[in-house]
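Q: What would this chain look like folded?
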Amino acid sequence: MTIETEVKIAIDDMDEFRRRLGVLDRCLVCSRHFEDNFVLDFKDGRIRSQACLLRVRKTEGKESVTFKGPPRPSTTFKSREEIETTVDSADVMLRILAQAGLETWFRYQKYREEYAVAVRTGSLPEIQLAIDETPIGNYVELEGSEEGILEAAAALGFTRTQFIRDSYYSLFAQYCRQRSETSGHMVFEHQGGTGDDTIQKGP
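A: My prediction, written as structure tokens:
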């Protein structure tokens, strides 16, 4: 079990963001790839009622199951306990969890690119930087120590006022409310990866 500390930041201009990315001392960990995420709960919603998360992730080469505890109180960073392990088959894990009485209540997809970023403050460990392309927009996710996140964000031209603690479910729900749309799953209608993917509504 580890403590995960992270923030998201919306990327309004991807070309400009990639130019800024060049200032960081970074190493590519995983090139752009597709992820399919299934968030599960019992019918009574007991997991999300405690602000916890149980997720099965399908992605080429690294399928996993993750449990996250409730976020700790903070106005800036999202910090919570995380237990994660890889699995041989996400589909089999989903079937096992279904037999145990859980069901997928939210599914979300994205294209992700991952980097390890060295920080210059003292002897802090490197942080993880992920670029997420989602059906509702692009985001960068910074994970690591609070000091390292602040340093990397500042180097990229962001301030803590731009930090987002919300989950992708919360961001998607806000997106749908702003457009008076019914929220369902945040998935691509087409997985072309060309930037013109659209949202497929409904479970």
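The helical segments are 14-21, 46-49, 90-99, 146-155, 168-178.
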